[in-house]
Write a structure and sequence with these properties.
CATH superfamily of the largest domain: Phosphoenolpyruvate-binding domains
Number of helices: 22
Radius of gyration: 32 Å
CATH architecture of the largest domain: Alpha-Beta Barrel
Number of domains: 5
Number of strands: 32
CATH class of the largest domain: Alpha Beta
């Protein structure tokens, strides 16, 4: 609410605040300053009435400019209905009833942003009126507020600003904000108390076998589980879902599960497994003296859980392996266990602790043990098993060559003098690529260009890599920005995967949607699965390509035909597809358009990545995570320090709620910073 005093619009709330401050000891200066300003304004008004005609004409010109600014504060073009709304009425009518107002507002926002409005912003700010900042939630209400206040500033005589006008704008903005919150709750579930932004966590494959991982993550404050269907199989995903449901019951919460479809994502082929060899290593001081011994953790093969976790020890974790149950029973604390390691060198370990689920052994020499190696103790022998194969990759440095091929036979790392090879899961890439085209691996971390093309293969030159080179593994993402592949947004495999997971999925993430037709196909696919299963599934569109940026308004209008929807800024592939220098504007563009459509949006990939992997974030990552509070949800990747990351992000988001609401900065009282 506001009043007009001497041609100046003053909010009633501000006047009330001054009155209250007068009762406080420190308010006298504020009150005196306000009185002086009002006196000066009256003096200037009297002076204007006495000025020459030329100066009065200048004033009149200024008034006309203010009126022109007021006239430009609209996107309406017709008497009955704005042209921009009339032109897209069919699109608006086609969306789900829950998103009708959001669709209208999105169209109005597009009309507002169809021209450069920076001059208008400046003019409004000069007049002391709202400068059309943060118009996303309700464009027409914001414009109405600007027009009302600018109109009050036109002319020497004050013009009334009615309370109904101000109250009406406030109600519209509150209603728009409420609709966004309700849409977010419906699609993503309710946020934790104390913050408005939810936390989604991608579960690792280990979570299928270890329910404690799930319990720890959601006990730390995460709200949504995400399962990446690129990795694992149906049985693993079902086990993850069961652990999530069990955790939800124990915590007395609802934990939605999102499944991420691969879509037309291109990946590297398999790299042949390395030998099944494990290392039990001694840790030493700089002078060579032993700090921590080499350790083994032996598990009897009759354990129903298989290889149990070893006890926590300082230094390097023990090498785990299974042994014959009868042989295991003969072990006691102090028993010597002898073996010949993978190099044929004799080694001796001593049992230092034994439990039903395993025995801990220590030795004073580093040892490499191959699967099926022989152990001997108490004149009895056993062969070890359960040592996994070494995961291998292709290590590449700047200047190296790599042959990308449609042959998906597992490859071995190259030997000296050989050119590295790796398969590509999408054979159509080779007919689309041209010499000079970029090919990126691992979300753009490794950059190459096409040198020449052959039948079903491309020879690439590595042009960008970090010092010391980088290693690519199987199922590593491949991006070909600027290359027209014309791949479908959803595949037959996507539909099969959703069919297999719809029993526990609350949301499905659709990858690499580029056009409105892609989105239409994706919605149709989801509806087919819904009809066959009798389940309702929300849809989250992942936005990650240049085409998706160019077609985003139409994509959102197609998406909004479904009942529960949202958007995701998929920053990993987005950085590879658009280039790292566009990662300031592109995510903000997605967030703004989703907000205009009153749709929840998820910020994904690389949030506090260093903390997740190494236990300590960078300062830049903390700032980045704080910006993500503008979204309704933050998506975290899995890693060694997932729990610490969830706790840190939760605390950061809660703190940011006090100083920021979406893209609008708030003004809490200043306080002194204390160390």
């Amino acid at each position: 609410m506001a009043v007009v005093e001497n041609g100046v619009v003053l909010p009633i709330g501000a006047l009330d605040l001054v009155e209250r401050l007068r009762d406080e000891e420190a308010a006298d200066a504020v009150a005196r300053h306000e009185g002086q300003r009002r006196h000066q304004r009256r003096g200037r008004q009297d002076h204007r009435r006495q000025r020459p005609a030329a100066e009065q004409r200048d004033d009149q010109r200024g008034q006309r400019e203010a009126q022109a600014a007021a006239d430009r504060c609209t996107v309406d073009r017709g008497d009955d209905r704005p042209v921009h709304l009339a032109q897209r009425q069919d699109d608006i009518d086609a969306v789900h009833s829950s998103y009708r107002s959001g669709a209208e507002n999105l169209v109005a926002y597009l009309a507002l942003r169809s021209a450069d409005r920076r001059t208008l912003q400046h003019e409004l700010a000069t007049l002391g009126a709202p400068s059309l900042q943060f118009p996303e939630l309700d464009v027409r209400a914001k414009i109405a507020a600007a027009r009302t206040l600018v109109s009050a500033l036109i002319g020497d005589e004050p013009q009334a600003v009615t309370m109904d006008e101000i109250d009406g704008v406030e109600e519209k903005l509150q209603a728009a904000e409420q609709r966004l919150m309700e849409n977010a709750d419906e699609t993503l579930g309710v946020a934790s108390q104390g913050r408005s932004t939810r936390i989604m966590v991608t579960l690792p494959r280990e979570a299928a076998q270890d329910p404690q991982i799930v319990e720890d993550v959601f006990g730390a404050g995460a709200e949504i589980a995400r399962i990446n269907l690129v990795y694992g199989d149906v049985s693993e995903w079902q086990q993850m879902a069961e652990h999530v449901e069990d955790t939800a019951r124990r915590l007395n919460r609802i934990i939605p599960i999102a499944v991420d479809l691969p879509g037309p994502k291109i990946f590297t082929g398999r790299v042949a497994d390395g030998p099944r060899v494990g290392a039990s290593l001694v840790s030493r001081y700089d002078d060579g003296e032993m700090r921590y011994p080499a350790r083994l953790w032996l598990v009897p093969e009759n354990q129903p859980e298989g290889l149990t976790e070893p006890p926590h020890v300082e230094g390097i974790a023990p090498l785990c392996m299974m042994v014959d149950a009868t042989w295991f029973a003969s072990l006691e604390v102090g028993t010597e266990v002898r073996t010949a390691d993978n190099r044929g060198v004799k080694r001796t370990f001593v049992v230092v602790a034994k439990q039903d689920e395993g025995a801990l052994l220590q030795g004073d020499r580093s040892t490499w043990i191959r699967n099926h190696a022989m152990l001997e103790a108490n004149f009895m022998r056993t062969r070890v098993r359960g040592i996994p194969p070494l995961q291998r990759g292709i290590h590449l440095e700047r200047g190296d060559e790599l042959i990308l091929t449609d042959d998906l036979t597992p490859v071995n790392p190259p030997r000296d003098g050989e050119v590295a090879r790796i398969g590509c899961t999408e054979p159509r890439i080779f007919s689309a690529l041209q010499v000079g085209d970029p090919v990126l691996f691992n979300n753009g971390a490794l950059y190459s260009t096409v040198q020449n093309l052959g039948d079903g293969e491309a020879r690439l030159l590595i042009t960008q890599a970090k010092d010391g080179g980088q290693t690519i593994y199987e199922n590593c993402g491949i991006n070909v920005p600027g290359t027209a592949l014309n791949l479908p947004a959803v595949t037959a495999e996507d539909e099969k995967l959703l069919e297999a997971t719809v029993s526990f999925a609350s949301l499905v993430e659709v990858s690499f949607v580029r056009t409105a037709q892609d989105m239409r196909d994706a919605v149709a696919m989801v509806r087919r699965v819904e009809q066959r299963s009798g389940r309702n599934v929300g849809i989250v569109v992942k936005l990650e390509t240049l085409e998706s940026m160019q077609n985003l308004p139409d994509i959102l209008l197609e998406l909004m035909k479904h009942e529960r929807v949202g958007g995701m800024v998929a920053r990993g592939d987005m950085a590879a597809e658009l280039g790292i220098m566009h990662m300031v504007e592109a995510p903000r563009y997605v967030v703004n358009l989703c907000q205009a459509a009153q749709l929840p949006v998820i910020i994904g990939s690389n949030i506090l990545e260093t903390l997740t992997d190494a236990g300590q974030p960078t300062r830049a990552e903390v700032t980045d995570a704080a910006w993500a509070q503008q979204a309704e949800c933050v998506m975290l990747n899995h890693g060694k320090h997932m729990v610490e990351t969830v706790e840190a992000v939760g605390a950061l988001l809660s703190a940011m709620d006090g100083v920021q609401r979406k893209n609008q900065s708030l003004l809490p009282s200043l306080h002194e910073w204390k160390r």
